[in-house]
Write a structure and sequence with these properties.
The chain has helices at residues 8-12, 47-50, 61-68, 99-108, 121-130, 144-156, 171-176, 188-193, 204-238, 243-246, 252-271, 273-282; strands at residues 2-5, 25-28, 32-37, 40-45, 75-81, 84-91, 115-116, 138-139, 162-165, 179-182, 196-197. By secondary structure, it is an alpha/beta fold. The protein folds into three domains: 2-91, no CATH class; 99-205, HAD superfamily/HAD-like (Rossmann fold); 211-282. The strands form three sheets. Strands 1-6-5-4-3-2 form a six-stranded antiparallel sheet. Strands 9-10-11 form a three-stranded parallel sheet. Strands 7-8 form a two-stranded parallel ribbon. One of its GO terms (biological process) is copper ion homeostasis. It is found in: Membrane.
Amino acid sequence: LAVVAAAGASASAVAKIPDADDGSFRQEPGAGAVAAVRGRTVAVGTLAFVTGGKNEGAVPPEVAEVASASNPGRTPVFVAFDGIVAGVLEMEDEVRADAASAVARLQRRGLRTVLLSGDRQETAESVGMSLGIAREDIYGDVRPEGKAQLVEKLQKGGATVAMVGDGINDAAALAQADVGVAMAGGVGAASEVASIVLLGDSPSQVVDSIELSKATFAKIKQNLAWAFAYNAVGIPIAAGALLPFTGLALTPSVAGGLMGFSSIGVMANSLLLQLTGKKLSKMPESTKGEDDEGGDENV
């Protein structure tokens, strides 16, 4: 984090706002926040937000020089008093250690990974490409409503979209997606609209949830196949279909016991899902998903 303050003269030359209510606060998702402090309006956020869209002449030379030299992987956050920029903070998000491996696991499954970010395009590309995401699938400078629109665009193109997010900026996109995944520690708005709420904040858990979901659906299909086959054979026998040929007839108690055995088989097969969960939790990130088969799924 680097902080560079402009000359104080530019800020002191701005007239104060005498009728401002100290403590008043307003936040605009994806842009910044503004508050009244000691009769002056203090704004923090993007350059367009803190200057009200009047970028020309609102940035002192010292601040403009630092902002132009900003590292592509960092995001400049401007501070303005009464519409005139007084400083800039350069921020950099630390990429989680397992983020790259999580993206690789998704891609090995045949899933398309897309990055939607409110940060500037250069920052989004720097982070996204370091994770292995294609440049054409990286979108920067995206406002909250823009994320939902991009999700809708992908859906209209025939894709089934899973959106992962943790903030209020992601709530609209989470609601629009076919499957919304909220990370632990996120705001309530994201958790309320998400289809899945993870108990942790690790990107690898997103892939784990997909693999567990697929394993669950596989068990459902196996249980249905078992139940249909078992009943297709068992019901005629219980009704006496073998009696004319073999003299074999089931008593009501035996027939009831065999029906219970069918349910036990379904439950036992379903309990095997616990082994899948334990296997995922024990696997190193570098080996997870190596045996996954690619498909035609879309994210």
